[in-house]
Amino acid sequence: MAMRFLYNDINFTQDTQEAVLIVTGNITNNSGKDFNAVVFRMALFIKTRCIGHLTITMNGFRNGQTKTFKESVSELGLGLKISPELIRYEIFPESAY
């Protein structure tokens, strides 16, 4: 059985002073189940090159609920300005209970 989650309003902002990429967005639980916690993994790409990973944890995630997240990625080590339009992402639930 596949878990169904909707990912909306995913945005990327680069903080050049802190040298981090800020990722924000919303995740909706359409799985038909309530969860104590769900961990999502997101891989970030520029074209086909993977530039980093992050995990997003949603605690107390009820069916039908939408939650907002804000995470930062600091291990990019690119030392250059990244245009948010160049970033592609893949996101999936990694674990849930």
Please report the total strand number as a whole number.
6
- How does the major sheet shape up? 3 strands, antiparallel
Any low-confidence stretches, pLDDT <50, length ≥5?
A: none
User: Overall 3D geometry?
Assistant: elongated
Describe this structure in words.
- By secondary structure, the protein is mainly β.
- It has no helices and six strands.
- The radius of gyration is 14 Å and the shape is elongated.
- The relative contact order is 0.32.
Show the helix and strand layout:
Elements: E1 5-15, E2 20-29, E3 35-46, E4 49-61, E5 66-73, E6 87-96
Antiparallel strand pairs: 1-2, 2-5, 3-4, 3-6
Question: Tags for this entry?
Answer:
about 100 residues, mainly beta, 6 strands, 3-stranded antiparallel beta sheet
Kindly summarize this structure in a few lines.
By secondary structure, the chain is mostly beta strands. The protein has strands spanning 5-15, 20-29, 35-46, 49-61, 66-73, 87-96.
